[in-house]
Fold this protein.
Amino acid sequence: MTMFLATLLSPLIGGLLLGVIDHPRLAARINVATGIFTFTFSLLLAMQVLDVQSLDAMGGWFHLDAYNVFLVVLTTFVGMTTTIFSGPYMRHELEAGRVDSLRLRLYHSMFQLFQLGMLLGFTSNNIGVLWISLELATLATVLLVSLYRTPASIAAAWKYFILCGMGIALALFGTVLVYFTSSSVLGHGNAALTWTLLHAHAAELDPAVMSIAFCFLMVGYGTKVGLVPMHAWLPDAHGEGPTPVSAVLSGLLLNLALYALVRCKMLVDDATGTDMAGHMMMGFGLLSLAVAALSLHKQRDIKRMFSFSSIEHMGLMTFAFGIGTTLSSFAALLHMTVHSLVKSGLFFTVGHASQAMGTQKMSEIRGLIRHHPGIGWGLLIGTVAIAGFPPFGVFTSEFLLFIASLESYPWTTLPLLAGLLVAMAGLFRFVQPMVYGEPSEQAIDVHVNMLPVYVHFALALALGLAIPAFLAGWYEQAAALIVPLAPAGGGA
Amino acid sequence: MSAALIQQLVDGLAALMLLTSFALLAQHRMLSVLNWFATQGLLLAVTAAVVAYGTDNSELYISAVMTFLLKGLLLPWLLWRVIRQLHVHREVEPLMNTSLTMLVALGVTVFSFHIIEPIERISQLMTRDSMAIATACVLLGMLMMITRRKAITQVVGFLAVENSLFFAAIGSTNGMPLVVEIGIAFDVLVAALIFGLFFFQIRDTFDSLEVDAMNAHLIHRDDDE
């Protein structure tokens, strides 16, 4: 309880404090300190939750179970390493004149508010508040995407704002529909939006209304997840914003949207007793995988290229959650973890690479391993990891996903495999010349901090070699939560 | 007042909501768009008040007042100030011609009644008929967003969708819990402020508020879409 409050208050206080601090170097330090505090508190919180299985806080407004507490820790961890990375990165941007100290203040403050929105969203027990938090996190990142005030970044932020605003409005409509049927079961008031109560009474909810609601929720939250065909905002927002923002967008915000979608799926599954929701998620997942894998090949901008890889992986996770067996949910959760770690690490590396080269164009980034061995190796290892080579964790989760799909829907394994191969070819086609090619002369020295990158990759590697028992147990608990109960069950 | 009268009142208000949605789609001038938008906000507040009276729900009075202040007064006034400062209170042109847009809008409305039909069959609430209209208004707001080229009218479309969602919440469920409603109102307010900020950035950067001018920038950079 105290730990829970501390976890939420830390980014709030940090964000407010950073809003008034004008000194860039001090602000960067406070940002890092806030990140470390938040992570420590969330770790202690997770240990508490692990002991008691599930925890209600603040009079039932917040609910922590195995499913969300691990995402909370993941969020605060990636948040913390991003603050460490963003220190030297933003200092370079300041020196290069791409931001001034006022906008740097905005950046720091909004970054922490984004963190707060994320944590509120994950822990909230009310699907209305979950929606509000997701919107809060979105609004904070809109300002971050347009931070550089270049024409392209403003256009990208506008697109992001309008498309996600629209998507999220549809999700709200879905939530209204859920409330429409649940208020006749649970009575008028907050109870009818409280997730734990909804889940316990899911079988009493009207199946027809829940089906229509899920269509809206799927498209709404799906926009935020970046599923094809609602993905148009994602590459632009990732490509034009500052790199630390791309890292948390890809690594964290997409997770929250998917989390929300899965929470809703759990209700719809129990209410309808059919696989409707799962099949929709599988369809969107496979489509995203296919389109993103092909689009990868057409990219010229390095950050856009990796953002298509994010769409591909979010598609994989959506597909895995859609299958809905214990094994596939386990794979999806593991994939969520390793994807967040590797992808944010990759974005850190890409940020350093584009600073060192003064461009994000892949055709002008050459021979990194020669003049910036740290960055070159980082890019290479990260790409190997994200493409799903053993022994990294992405391989493990994708392998589990294959088994799960073979068990339940064997025909899907083929498109799955094809998509992954095409995506892998796309990644290496671009990364290989960037790493090994003839060194270009425009390279400049930058202050590089590769520590967060290597920590992320090492964790992904460790998860690939052996998942610690407590973590595996955690995933299992979470997967068991997600898998639909037998229809007509009623009580959880 | 009898329940039947309230029911008829809400149905009448729902019809007026639909009218404002159509009107928003058909307007050419920026100022009349804003006027209709303000009218829609006021209608919402009245609906909330009527439903609050009919169901004896005191929380709903609070949201009625909130809606009146935020959507009836504050947001239209903010937008009005912005277009004054940007000197753009002249014509706006829809992407498609008006009669075609109206026909599409008609189709969208019929479609909404069709998809909501299974819900209306089960509802016991006195306001159940308004669900289909709310859905239609959501879709019409979206139609407005895709048929307009100016950033400001797109935002009005966005806010009209938000209005319709609120209408769906009061019309079909007698209002969401107050905490959720306050949170949503807060988000809308922040979004509107950010939108306002963007208008100035867009104008300064692109010398116009045309969305096409912005998109050209993205397409120009990477011709992958």
Residues 486-492 of chain A have pLDDT under 50 and may be disordered. Residues 2-482 of chain A form one domain.
